[in-house]
Write a structure and sequence with these properties.
Radius of gyration of chain A: 22 Å
Structural class of chain B: alpha/beta
Shape of chain B: globular
Order of helices and strands of chain A: HEHHEEHHHEEHEHHEEHHHEE
Number of helices of chain A: 12
Helix content of chain A: 40-55%
Radius of gyration of chain B: 14 Å
Structural class of chain A: alpha+beta
Oligomer: heterodimer
Number of strands of chain A: 10
Largest sheet of chain A: 10 strands, antiparallel
Distance between the termini of chain B: 21 Å
Shape of chain A: elongated
Strand content of chain B: 25-35%
Distance between the termini of chain A: 22 Å
Strand content of chain A: 15-25%
Number of strands of chain B: 6
Largest interface: A-B, 31 and 27 residues
Helix content of chain B: 25-40%
Strand order of the largest sheet of chain A: 4-5-3-2-1-6-7-8-10-9
Order of helices and strands of chain B: EEEHEHEHE
């Protein structure tokens, strides 16, 4: 997990997701980015642009991604992928979706043409196509692509990777600079980097990864998103509520006890799937003074029987009500109870003398 | 004519169509996956309305963002209103947007260049972020 944290270190928010893209998911992701972008005055200006960009990118996947992927054997390729990154001065949306090989050339031609136009030409083309398609009702004229490039202010980066004789995947990357369109604007992230991330996440069986702020507003959006995914995958998940509660506990653990990084309750959360089992992993930095007592407490919990955990939970619950204490330690006991004590944890002492804590459990 | 009242939720827009008052309102976010299906009954309602319109029709858009498929449908609505306007019936499109939201203002200006209907641009203070129309 630390390697992923390092990969995303410079990003204020990084969110990558393989899964079902729907109206509800789109709304949650826009809320997630909105929450963060609203925090900084510098970001306010492009908050709305970011919403347009996310909505249009997802619409593009929903409308043009291949729905029937039966002849694609790799599980991950059956899922659409997108990634949102917020840097100090950039907002980036990347998507990857499967398309039929016979549609590749026409899509590439459209992207090449759109990328070659200046802002005025793009606007004129958009209005022309909008007028034309509203009258004729035809689709696929590239209106969405134009909208994405116009909002972004930079050409769209893309790469087509052939999967089979029938299908390819297309990786698209759109960047928006906080300073707006400038003559010398350059992309911060290359299309190869996006492809590498896509491959690395695929190899690690990760379906969802979020690095960023774990304040309550952000947590709310993430929890809703996970809840929707668990709901959609009924065959895999049998006990949704317990799983969700466990996720809430690990996330609140970061927001309450994590060490602040650059003024944020920063952490990283992933959901991965291996052999039809879903794993949740959550990591954050811990304060040096908390390290030893925290490690000791985890060891005690891990060595407890299920009965002892139940007793300890009830005792702790009563004590927390009496003391009205925020730091009750109930969260860890709750995770241990719900996972039948099948969780693992690790501490990494980093090169900067920081302590990076991870907790991982299998959903039930 | 029956009113159409749809509440905004998720990324579906709120819509109030009131033939008696000659007022058509669209607010919130508009990014439905199948925008054509969503807007079809709205377009039919407008067809019926323009066959027996009020002397003055006020159409208010107060959207925080919309996708291109919605943009097409917004333009279809405006095209119908343009026809009404050409028949000598008064139509005003009120395009509301939050202050400093250049994107939304620009989007309204784009529509203004395409259709021959009077546009009023109304800037709303930033804290009024819910996109709720005047009548609510």
């Amino acid at each position: 997990m630390y390697s992923f944290y390092k990969k995303f270190e410079k990003e204020k928010i990084s969110f990558a997701y393989f899964g079902i893209i729907s109206d509800t998911i789109t709304e949650m992701l826009i809320d997630l980015s909105d929450n963060y972008l609203s925090k900084s005055k510098d970001f306010l200006k492009f908050k709305r642009k970011a919403s347009f960009l996310i909505a249009e990118s997802f619409q593009n996947i929903i409308r043009h991604g291949v729905l029937k992927k039966d002849d694609i054997t790799d599980y991950q390729y059956k899922k659409d992928f997108f990634h949102i990154s917020v840097f100090e001065d950039r907002f980036i949306v990347s998507t990857t979706n499967v398309l039929e090989n016979n549609k590749v050339k026409s899509l590439e031609d459209k992207i090449k043409r759109i990328n070659s136009l200046n802002p005025e030409e793009l606007k004129a083309l958009q209005l022309e196509i909008l007028t034309d398609t509203a009258l004729s009702d035809k689709g696929g004229a590239g209106l969405g692509l134009i909208e994405m490039v116009r909002r972004s202010g930079l050409p769209m980066l893309y790469k087509v990777i052939q999967l089979t004789e029938g299908y390819s995947i297309i990786v698209m990357n759109l960047e928006m600079s906080i300073s707006g369109r400038t003559e010398n604007a350059e992309h911060k992230v290359s299309i190869d980097e996006i492809e590498n991330l896509y491959r690395k996440l695929t190899e690690s069986d990760i379906l969802l990864i979020y690095k960023g702020d774990f304040s309550e507003d952000s947590n709310k959006n993430l929890i809703e998103l996970l809840y929707n995914n668990f709901e959609a995958d009924k065959n895999i998940i049998s006990n949704k509520i317990k799983n969700i509660v466990s996720v809430i506990e690990v996330m609140q653990n970061v927001s309450k006890h994590g060490k602040q990084i650059r003024g944020n309750q920063e952490g990283i959360l992933s959901l991965s799937i291996k052999n039809d089992e879903i794993y949740i992993e959550c990591s954050n930095f811990v304060k040096h003074q908390d390290y030893k007592p925290f490690k000791k407490r985890l060891k005690t919990i891990k060595n407890s029987s299920i009965d002892d955990l139940e007793k300890a939970y009830k005792k702790q619950l009563k004590a927390s009500i009496r003391n009205n204490s925020k730091n009750s330690g109930l969260g860890l006991l709750e995770i241990a109870r719900f996972t039948q004590n099948r969780f693992s944890y690790s501490f990494v002492e980093t090169e900067n003398d920081e302590i990076f804590f991870s907790i991982k459990f299998k959903t039930i | 004519m029956k009113k159409i009242i749809l509440k905004a939720h998720d990324i579906m827009p709120g819509i109030n169509l009131d033939a008696d008052a000659g007022k058509l309102e669209f607010y919130g976010k508009s990014c439905p996956v199948d925008a054509h299906e969503f807007y079809e009954p709205i377009l039919k309602w407008i067809d019926e309305y323009i066959s027996n319109p009020q002397k003055l029709t006020i159409v208010q858009f107060y959207l925080s963002y919309f996708n291109t498929v919605s943009a097409k449908n917004i333009l279809k609505i405006m095209n119908k209103l343009e026809k009404l306007n050409k028949r000598g019936k008064n139509v005003v499109i009120q395009w509301k947007y939050n202050e400093n939201d250049e994107i939304l203002r620009e989007a309204g200006e784009d529509f203004e260049t395409i259709v021959e209907v009077d546009f009023e641009f109304i800037e709303v203070p930033e804290n009024d972020d819910e996109g709720i129309p005047d009548s609510h």
